[in-house]
Predict the 3D structure of the following.
Amino acid sequence: MTRIRGLVVGLLLAAWPASAAHAQISPIQGEDYEHWHAAQDVELQRFLMQRTPEDAGFFVTGPLHPVATAEAGDMTAVVRIVCPDLESLHALAAALDSEPSVSSRLESDVAWLNVSVGEREAAAMLLTVARLRWLIWHSEILESRAEHRDESARKAQAAYATAVAGYLNSTSLDEPSDAPVAADYGVDPSLDFYAPPPDYVIQGYANYKGFLREHADISTDFAHGILAFIPTDSLLGAFRANAPQMAFPNKEQAALQHELRKFFDRGGNMRTMRTLTAETFASLQPGEYFWGMNVAGQIRFGRELLREEVERIEAETGRKAPRANHAYLFPGEPLLTAGAFWIEADPEPRLTEVTAGSGHYFYSNIQPTIREDIAEHSNEYVWTLGHFFRGLDSLGIAYDDVLIRKY
């Protein structure tokens, strides 16, 4: 692989085009991005993260939407603590309620927190992974198509939504037939919780990877026709200063529930993904990690399993290994950037490579514009790494001589 240290001489950074993605799911930018950014309440998230044990399966994350949605209400517009199950939710709510600055209120399978942060009051919500899955589906599928519903359709969809909630809260989700079917409730099949996702645009995984390889060379104002580079300090400064002010939704939201079901059916656990801090970085083993960064600037990551490790797990257990991905790091939220990083130990963990390569957020093969996303926008996506570098700076994590690739 070519390793070139980038030179910046009179760098002229072209503005990110307004049509940065022609896909059906486009980046959030302009006033919409400002609303997302303003809704994050980073101070509250940090307060809660200090009191929430990630190694027990909890994680703090931002709102699903910057404003309350019509039917799900404030559940989509507040900072959230995602809990592995209802029992752990109740235990955490009780523990937080014992703090002078926090009061909690239980409502069925969620808990509402009122938190004193400095001299102001802020609201947050505790919810289970099951409720989060329901909320993503409800806000993305049901509410997004509420415009043309009559009263009978509303009642049918409400009954179906209740059935889906009961299904997700069940402890025995063993067979696909367990899931309620939209048509059985008189609801349009396209609103089904497990509605079939679109077909792949580029047929065959090898063909998809081949198209990526065809456009792996980097062509920007500072480099042309190279596969990778090590940036100078001035170029890193340009990355940090010019990181695009936009957020990218998960382009494969339609497949998310299928992916999550497969993950949990195979024994997957959300606690395998963590928030990046100086402490967690110091504990990393050599290898590849997938990561994402939300609008609040929080970076979460998980270990990318080697093929040999997957084969070993499957041989020992007799079942398919759970494979996590970018969409699980901040389920339902748009991200500033996402990709992979590599760690080497010499002797302490050291960041050696980073990419802005994510099929879910940049290069979705179920989006009709996949070829344009790869051929026309992959150079632009590299600039999103400026957010990642600013995040590492705030954490005190070094990235000297880091190698940058597209994917």
Summary: Residues 40-129 form a domain with the Beta Polymerase; domain 2 fold (CATH 3.30.460). Residues 151-168 form the longest helix (18 residues). The CA atoms of residues 212 and 374 lie 7 Å apart. The two ends are 13 Å apart (CA to CA).
